[in-house]
């Protein structure tokens, strides 16, 4: 009798095992569209860029592993300065955009006549391509632009805001373009803060500025950090606007990449510069996940 | 301690008046409850007192001084919200200290007062926790501590117990009453729960459709309601339309659909006056009696633990009658009823 039980188990298990195997294939089949897409359009190109940056998989050349292109990036001032210039553009645009977006997002939580109209109007820059935005700002603030001519009429001189060392024109375009983008994210998070919590702060003696500083902003951190991250990464890797509005030196790193790739056919160096941009963005992303715990859990 | 007074306060949303010409007064150290069904304007009234809403008309006075023009942060009121409205990104201690921080109370004093407030609501040792790590009852206590720590002139409660289970609600309402009596702070409490209002209040303000319909002690509004909505809203009432048929002094005779009844009433009534008589179910006795004795058939008998709730048909009128203990009458049984000779007499147009 004792042996009869184990003898029957494999008979019962066989269909169960077959079903489990079938389920596994179904699971893999279901995962394939997502994982396959990521693999094909993200992992493969990134791997290829990295391999090229270390001397492997370069088209038309025999492969030889080397860190030379990374050394070249760090050794030559034009590349290093390009990196820091891109970093500066990213940080300055993000900080300025965030400051403006925060104030306006908070104001948009207040009911006032014309609020609906303003809530539609402020989103217009979202649908304007960044190159068009660059031309708009250029026509406004360039040395021969509308504002320059206007102040010249009164005998004043117009400051150098485009083609300048600090890229203020680029930053201005990025801020113009990204403030509404940030506002969309931050306003949505702010709108989710329960009115009772705001009222409680007011009732406990907090004037509007303190309510904003101690309640609204901390409770909007999930949106603020996400918006800041997205804007930073987008500006840090921006090509079109810097190529149109930057000075002769320093050049933003993506512009240098383009020159190396298209004008000098130096794919390996361009790939190394691209990898540096990607790694730097990745570090920012990791810092975001480390520094913003819960990302919004507090509101719930 | 302070006196709060509302004079003709009105708040309108579009074409709807949420609060209309409200006059009320909370005396020094009094526990005043605003009672009414959802949408009657009680929370709107409370928020107007707190400065969280601006009235469209009328005046709000604190200690005789108009305050309706002051923003919320400059009024000396503290409110406990229905949702507790704790700051989720702050610890319990930081929540309680928030009001003191806004008043620039020195850190050492702040610490002492926060500890004292937490001890008062029996939450000592939980100061380092975040609100999400607390139960509903504990969160409610934090909200109370956060309000009382600022030593406000007026404490405002907006249905603070409505999110809690029945047992906890019962316990906390007694604790709230004890706390208020200890602090002797003028308190305005909003609720739709009549039991809460009766247990907690020195006086009750009954609101209906944005207006104050009655103000009185719990005994007044329960035993001697002057408005039909008060009788209906506070517990169960058998409301019977009647016409005064005669009488003199404080004793009258009234004709009703269940027969002619003797009615004792301190107010002067005239023959032909239309009134509504309000009988509480626990005041009606099943059994024979010398006056106001009627006969009816039991339609329903519901056992509620400590009492049995009967529905008894007298002529075509259904009366609710409550007796202590288990059901002693069966459905369909014919019983004698004695209605009290001193019902509440409601005179309304």
Summarize this entry quickly.
Chain A: It is found in: Cell membrane. By secondary structure, chain A is mostly helical. Chain A has helices at 4-53, 68-75, 77-107, 115-121, 130-141, 146-153, 168-191, 195-203, 208-219, 221-236, 240-245, 253-263, 267-291.
Q: What does this 3D model show about the protein?
A:
Chain A: Belongs to the binding-protein-dependent transport system permease family. CysTW subfamily. Chain A: It is found in: Cell membrane. Chain A: Pfam families: BPD_transp_1 (PF00528). Chain A: It is a multi-pass membrane protein. Chain A: The chain crosses the membrane at residues 25-47, 83-108, 120-146, 166-193, 223-245, 265-291. The complex is a heterodimer of chains A (300) and B (349). By secondary structure, chain A is mainly α. Chain A has helices at 4-53, 68-75, 77-107, 115-121, 130-141, 146-153, 168-191, 195-203, 208-219, 221-236, 240-245, 253-263, 267-291. Chain A has a single domain, classed as Orthogonal Bundle (MetI-like fold). Chain A is flat. Chain B is an alpha+beta fold and 349 residues long. Chain B folds into two domains: 4-232, P-loop containing nucleotide triphosphate hydrolases (Rossmann fold), CATH 3.40.50; 236-346, OB fold (Dihydrolipoamide Acetyltransferase, E2P). Chain B has helices at 42-50, 92-102, 107-120, 136-148, 166-183, 194-200, 218-223, 228-233, and strands spanning 4-13, 16-26, 31-35, 57-62, 65-66, 77-80, 154-158, 186-191, 203-208, 211-216, 238-248, 251-256, 259-264, 274-279, 285-286, 293-303, 307-314, 317-324, 334-338, 344-346. In chain B, the strands form four sheets. In chain B, strands 6-7-8-3-9-10 form a six-stranded mixed beta sheet, with helices on both faces. In chain B, strand 16 (293-303) and strand 17 (307-314) form a beta hairpin. The two termini of chain B are 39 Å apart. Chain A binds chain B through residues 194, 196-197, 199-207, 210, 214-215, 218-219, 298-300, and chain B through 47, 50-52, 71-74, 77-79, 81-83, 85-89, 98-99, 102-103, 130, 132, 146, 150.
């Amino acid at each position: 009798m004792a042996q009869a039980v184990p003898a029957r188990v494999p008979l019962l298990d066989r269909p169960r095992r077959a079903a489990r195997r079938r389920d596994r294939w179904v699971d893999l089949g279901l995962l394939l569209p997502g994982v396959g897409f990521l693999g094909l359009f993200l992992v493969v190109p990134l791997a290829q860029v990295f391999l090229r940056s270390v001397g492997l998989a370069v088209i038309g050349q025999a492969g030889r592993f080397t860190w030379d292109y990374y050394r070249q990036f760090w050794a030559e001032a034009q590349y290093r300065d390009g990196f820091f210039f891109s970093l500066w553009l990213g940080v300055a645009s993000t900080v300025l955009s965030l400051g403006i977006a925060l104030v306006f997002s908070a104001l948009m939580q207040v009911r006032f006549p014309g609020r609906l109209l303003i809530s539609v109007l402020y989103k217009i820059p979202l649908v304007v391509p960044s190159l068009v935005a660059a031309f708009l700002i250029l026509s406004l603030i360039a040395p021969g632009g509308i504002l320059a001519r206007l102040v010249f009429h009164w005998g004043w001189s117009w400051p150098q805001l485009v083609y300048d060392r600090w890229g203020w024109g680029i930053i201005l375009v990025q801020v113009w373009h990204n403030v509404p983008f940030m506002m969309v994210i931050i306003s949505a998070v702010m709108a989710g803060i329960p009115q009772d919590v705001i009222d409680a702060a007011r009732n406990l003696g907090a004037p509007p500025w303190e309510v904003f500083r101690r309640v609204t902003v901390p409770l909007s951190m999930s949106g603020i950090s996400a918006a800041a991250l997205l804007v930073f990464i987008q500006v840090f890797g921006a090509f079109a606007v810097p190529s149109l509005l930057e000075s002769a030196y320093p050049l933003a790193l993506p512009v240098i990449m383009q020159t190396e790739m298209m004008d000098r056919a130096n794919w390996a160096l361009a790939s190394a510069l691209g990898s540096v941009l990607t790694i730097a963005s990745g570090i920012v992303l990791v810092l975001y996940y480390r520094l913003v715990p819960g990302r919004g859990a507090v509101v719930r | 301690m302070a006196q709060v007074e509302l004079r003709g306060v009105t708040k309108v949303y579009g074409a709807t008046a949420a609060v209309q010409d409200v006059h009320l007064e909370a005396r020094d150290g009094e526990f005043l409850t605003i009672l009414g069904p959802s949408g009657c304007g009680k929370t709107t009234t409370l928020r107007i007192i707190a400065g969280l809403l601006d009235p469209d008309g009328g005046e709000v006075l604190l200690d005789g001084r108009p305050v309706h023009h002051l923003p919320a942060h400059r009024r000396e009121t503290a409110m406990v919200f229905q949702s507790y409205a704790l700051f989720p990104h702050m610890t319990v201690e930081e929540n309680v200290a928030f009001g003191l921080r806004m008043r620039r109370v020195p850190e050492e004093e702040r610490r002492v007062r926060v500890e004292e407030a937490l001890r008062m609501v029996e939450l000592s040792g939980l100061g380092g926790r975040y609100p999400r790590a607390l139960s509903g009852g504990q969160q409610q206590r934090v909200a109370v501590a956060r309000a009382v720590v600022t030593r406000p002139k007026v404490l405002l409660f907006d249905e603070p117990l409505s999110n809690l289970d029945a047992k906890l609600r019962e316990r906390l309402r007694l604790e709230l009453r004890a706390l208020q009596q200890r602090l002797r702070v003028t308190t305005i409490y909003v609720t739709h729960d009549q039991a809460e209002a009766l247990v907690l209040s020195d006086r009750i303000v009954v609101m209906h459709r944005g207006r104050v319909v009655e103000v009185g002690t719990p005994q007044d509004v329960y035993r001697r309601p002057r408005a039909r909505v008060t009788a209906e809203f506070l517990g169960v009432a058998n409301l019977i339309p009647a016409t005064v048929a005669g009488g003199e002094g404080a004793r009258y005779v009234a004709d009703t659909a269940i027969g002619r009844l003797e009615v004792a009433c301190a107010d002067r009534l005239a023959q032909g006056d239309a009134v509504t008589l309000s009988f509480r179910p626990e005041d009606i006795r099943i059994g024979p009696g010398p006056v106001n004795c009627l006969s009816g058939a039991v339609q329903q008998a519901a056992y509620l633990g400590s009492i049995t709730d009967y529905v008894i048909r007298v002529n075509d009128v259904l009366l609710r009658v409550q007796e202590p203990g288990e059901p002693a009458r069966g459905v369909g049984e014919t019983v004698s009823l004695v209605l009290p000779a001193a019902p509440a007499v409601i005179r309304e147009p």
